Amino acid sequence: MKLSAVLFSLLLIHAPAQAATISGFVTDRTSGEFLLSANVFLSGTSLGALSNESGYYAITGIPAGSYVLIVSYLGYETHRDSLSLGAEAYLRLDVTLAPTVLIGEETVVEADRNRDERLAQPGFVALQAAVLQELPAIGETDLLRSLQLLPGIQASSDISSGLYIRGGGPDQTQILLDQIPLYNPSHAFGFFSIFNPEAIKDMRLHKSAYPASYGGNLGAVLDVTNRDGNRNDLRGSGGISLISMRTMIEGPLARGSFMVSGRRTYLEPILAYIRRRVEDIPGYYFYDVNAKINQNLSYSDNLVLSGYFGRDDLNLETSDDNHFNVRWGNSAITGKWTHLFSPTLFGNFIVSGSDYASRLSANFDGTEVLFRNSIRDISVKGDLDYVADDQHALKGGFRATGYRFRFKRSFNQDDQLDLRLRPYVVSVYAQDQWQALPSTSIRLGLRGNYYSERGKIDLEPRVSLSHRLPGGLRLKAGGGRYHQYLQLITTEGFSGGDFWVPLDSSVEPGQAWHFVIGASWDPAPNYRLSLESYYQRLGNLVVVDNTRAAGADETRSEDVFITGGRGYATGVELFVERMSGRLTGWIGYTLGWTRRQFPELNQGDWFPPKYDRRHDLVVSANYRAGRWTFGCNVIFATGQAFTPASARYELRESARTGIREDYFLPTGRNTARLLPYHRVDLSVKQDFRLFGRDLQWYLQVFNAYNHRNEWFIQYNTEDDGITTADVVKMLPIVPTLGLNYEF
Amino acid sequence: MQTKTRKPPYIPGVLAVALLAGLSVLSSCNGERDPATLFGPDERVTVVVDAVLYVDRILPEIIVTRTRAANIAFTEEAAAVNDAEVTIIQGLAEYRYERVGHLGRYLPPPGSPKVRPGTEYRLHVRALGKEIRGVTKTPGRLSFDEVVIVDETSMEVLDRLEPRTTPRNQVVYREGLMEVRFDPLDVEAYQVVVLDREADDEVSSPPLEARDGRLALPWFAIGSSGEHEVEVYALDRNLFDFLRSVEASGQNAFGFGSLAGDTFERPVFNLDGGIGVFGSASVGRFGFVVLQEDRSG
């Protein structure tokens, strides 16, 4: 309650000064879509704003006079307006921006160094759907796989779309779709993410030191926004790849728009055909559907209803008595009301519900093994943006989420584990974006979380600072404290059928401190160079205790996890980006260290997790020549850590005397490295028209020179007593053909 | 403010050459690695002890071996430690073991007593210049109250078996669940071993917890019809720690964990100066004959 009081005090103490105000929405001219994070500023001043999640901006505290208002957004023509404002004037100015070809001629959109504030936040990355679609991929464009090409983000394997960001695993990254948390963002055991590229409008990633408006996890936040739908024309787009078919339709609807997109594999008939000839081939499919309706209730009110539904299902029946089935899926539905209380006070309010279910069952000769996880949550969320004056942009809000968890494990009809919990989390936050000096911006934030199982409030201060120097150089720093109350149980090899478990009062929630310092520099209009160093200190980490006796009476978190872990991740990231022109792309390099320590693991010694990588270099480039686009990714990284066997010994297999078994004695955990990882992906695309439709065919070649990177080591004992260490390799060259279409 | 820049005409050519050069350099990094680099530093001189005491049986045979480098041939002869001093101590009594044969096997002195329930025993081994010590407290006696066949859904008792070895115990394959009931002991877990007397085969379970003194026996442990025997072992802490941790210690990179990485982890041995197990167990058993399931209906 104290936090709420602080928030409202902050809102009240900044009464608007006697000066002019400009506000409005920034939208795409062709589709009417709201544009997020568009940069709106008055040329020659330090006055400006970014459009918020609903495309709304407000600039206040403007002295009377004449100005040039500039609105810029990457991939759009820059908008300019000459304005003359009197004292206390209010101007409502909605701006529409016309899209340009992001990778067309080398038109420099704006030479002013103010033009794009987005990278001024430490650890922040923003990508538009158009950028994603140009990157070479495996099978089809995939958001999470594309993100793996950025510095500080790694993949665990060629088949995984899981994100390992700045030393944190996928369990430490919160993934939001239209502000709703998704518990399992993968299809096909991690091969693809659930994000349909046709539906994505915008993606914002906070790699660390994320602001007070987010919370609930120790690492990063990926905030994905789907398209609202075209307000002007009925249109559609889609694609056919070797794996799936996807379609998106959008158009005007009453006083707004709608968007529906769907994607489904068509592997089933292929697998069924193979199954007729080869035994033990499973059946498998996935699908996902996104839908959104967007309605303007009045000039100041907008209502959005959106939903996501996705499923994966794998089934293997080897006989009447033996089967194996895994299925999982997310469903989420959201209602969002945005309201303009005044030109400088904007609010959005969300009611949402989501349902995640994961089930793994197997039956071996009548003995059933079952893992079942379900999470249902209902959330109420509100955010207020208030532009107090020319120096302070305040933001505050709350979120209350009630969960219903169940994690059940049974063996042979016996419920060995049946965790049921109904916790809730209430969070409030306040944040001030303070333009302390014309060249210095400070963001101060405080978030408070009350987790019912913990019974106390965790306070999380957040701060970031950005200082602009002459010559396009910007210094930035940030930090904050973070807590995590839900724990993911997954594997590093595959990420299908993940299980989430809330921590109860028997285990302290994970906590982290983030610190980031860096600089960005625009040496030329089209280029940006960014250098960042990060340090994250982690405490109260947990890991699943695999050594529990089956059937143990596990009803509390302390029965499921090894607790008391700590760790750190530190590193430096270099990012050089060419943002527009015929040739676009980036060079990213990360030098990093990640370590963990648990009293009950590795004899209490520190160890690097499997995904710790000293060096990680990615070059990603696209070159457009007329209707042709050529893409290339070059990746070179330190090999992942693994635990080698140091000795062999024989010992009993069971409590009964008799059979003796071969065992390997490991060295310290993850003391050796796989060979360095390297790979080149190539793509070529051609736009063409057929029957009056815009089409594009593409050929993508994953791992173009067929280098089989090492995945893991398997030790085997041969009949002659010799031990062999077999290196299991990752994917070979994988060419894929596909077609994208618009109608 | 809008400006237009022209890129130098040589840039695409330079990029193409750089790409081709990069590709050729990377593809040349395709060599096979030396297999020796896949093994860690040798740990050859670690003493391995295998000793489990069974309640109400005489002191058991103890096997003393050594670890061998992981990438060389492993033979019982090469691993055996034949010059160890092995002693079991209970209270003030010491039982010095004698070597038998050349495979690191040691037997207790003649006339050694039976292992007592709920009693502390200590192990002392001197081998390869090292001293290995361990302590175990034996579990209480395990005796079955009853063995029943219950309905899989209602858990209603369908049939009762004799809680001892007898050919009169006849069960139809996969007809109901077989459940053994007993007074629970103060132990961490139990292990079930199913012996197929006709196929001379055995299947052992992971350590199981028996809530309310009940254990359901999985049908997949029974591979054929005929005479079977079930042994249930009540495990002391040492044996439980070893069995649970060696079970979880996978030998590849897949891990069912989240933050810590893979699970190829050193098992919990509870021995000072060496590795292996010095534990104790009490045992209960019963026998039955499995009849083929009736598929006519």
Topology:
The complex is a heterodimer of chains A (743) and B (297).
Chain A: H1 2-13, E1 20-28, E2 39-42, E3 48-50, E4 56-62, E5 65-72, E6 79-85, E7 90-92, E8 95-97, E9 107-108, E10 124-128, H2 129-134, H3 143-147, E11 153-154, E12 164-165, E13 174-177, E14 180-181, E15 186-187, E16 192-193, E17 200-206, E18 221-226, E19 235-240, E20 244-253, E21 256-265, H4 267-275, E22 283-296, E23 301-319, E24 322-342, E25 345-364, E26 367-387, E27 392-411, E28 414-421, E29 424-437, E30 440-451, E31 456-469, E32 473-484, E33 486-489, E34 499-502, E35 510-521, E36 527-544, H5 557-560, E37 561-578, E38 583-597, E39 615-625, E40 628-637, E41 641-642, E42 645-652, E43 660-666, E44 672-673, E45 677-690, E46 693-702, E47 710-717, E48 723-729, E49 734-742
Chain B: E1 3-4, H1 11-27, E2 47-54, E3 62-66, E4 68-69, H2 76-79, E5 85-90, E6 93-96, E7 98-100, E8 105-107, E9 120-127, E10 130-137, E11 144-150, E12 157-161, E13 170-172, E14 177-182, E15 189-196, E16 201-204, E17 214-217, E18 226-235, H3 237-248, E19 275-291
Number of strands of chain A: 49
| CATH structural class of the largest domain in chain B | Mainly Beta
Oligomer: heterodimer
How many β-strand stretches of chain B? 19
- Mean of the pLDDT scores of chain B? 82
CATH topology of the domain at 2-108 in chain A: Immunoglobulin-like
Q: In the CATH hierarchy, what is the architecture of the largest domain in chain B at level 2? A: Sandwich
Largest interface (CB within 8 Å) is between:
A-B, 116 and 105 residues
Helical content of chain B (DSSP H or I, runs of 4+): 10-25%
Helix content of chain A: under 10%
Any idea what the CATH architecture of the domain at 2-108 in chain A is?
Sandwich
CATH topology of the largest domain in chain B: Immunoglobulin-like
**Can you tell me the residue ranges of chain B where pLDDT is under 50 for at least 5 consecutive residues?**
1-6, 251-261
Q: Outline the biggest β-sheet of chain B.
A: 9 strands, mixed
Helix count of chain A equals 5
Radius of gyration of chain B: 28 Å
Percent of residues in β-strands of chain B: 35-45%
Query: What structural class is derived from the secondary structure elements of chain B?
Result: mainly beta
